[in-house]
Input
Amino acid sequence: MAGHRFTRVVIPPRKLVVITAPSGAGKTSIVKKLLEQIPYLGFSVSCTTRPRREGEQHGREYYFISVDEFKRKIAAGEFAEYEEVYPGMFYGTLKSEIERIWNNRKVALFDIDVKGAHNLKKMYGDDCLTIFISPPSRESLENRLRNRHTENAKTLKQRLQRAIEELAMAPQFDKQVVNADFDTAFMRVKNHITNFLKPAETHIH
Ligand code: 5GP
Output
């Protein structure tokens, strides 16, 4: 109709957006805000064997399962990817979780470690956008991990050591965003996602 412009956004089926970072880079806050602002993103809830932290809910942040249950799922081939992120602590993405999100006509959004992100990219190629969030400095990463108060001395040391190794892997990912200022980093991530999904937008004049 003259004077009217309809813009229909068609969400592409079977796409993945993976946010990865060393633990302590602030990726979980970015993921939470993305979910608040972009309704067509569906969070991929991972399975983990680590203990539940205060405020976390089974089925929301994670599916908290036992090591036996996790191993049974590995044997049954139920994971798209999984990692022993810290000694004795397994984390993994269920194939059924990705299907659940796609069946809801949403784009799957992941908050996963660097190796898991790399594996999803290998599996899904151009259908998968990987964004690596880096802390502005090693000190800031250490401070964030300490201030979280979720770690004891041993797990803090493990997490720091791992984070330092992971920082070196940044160039492997499609996009890199430095999280010096949260709002700026968030806007950059959001723009990368919008651009990645743009080819699916259909403009009807
Ligand atoms: P946290 O224990 O702090 O929740 O998570 C520890 C690390 O495991 C984070 O880097 C988190 O992104 C990662 N992680 C969470 N779920 C998965 C998953 O399904 N697969 C992999 N490979 N890593 C995950």
User: Anything to note?
Assistant: Residues 16-197 form a domain with the Rossmann fold fold (CATH 3.40.50.300).
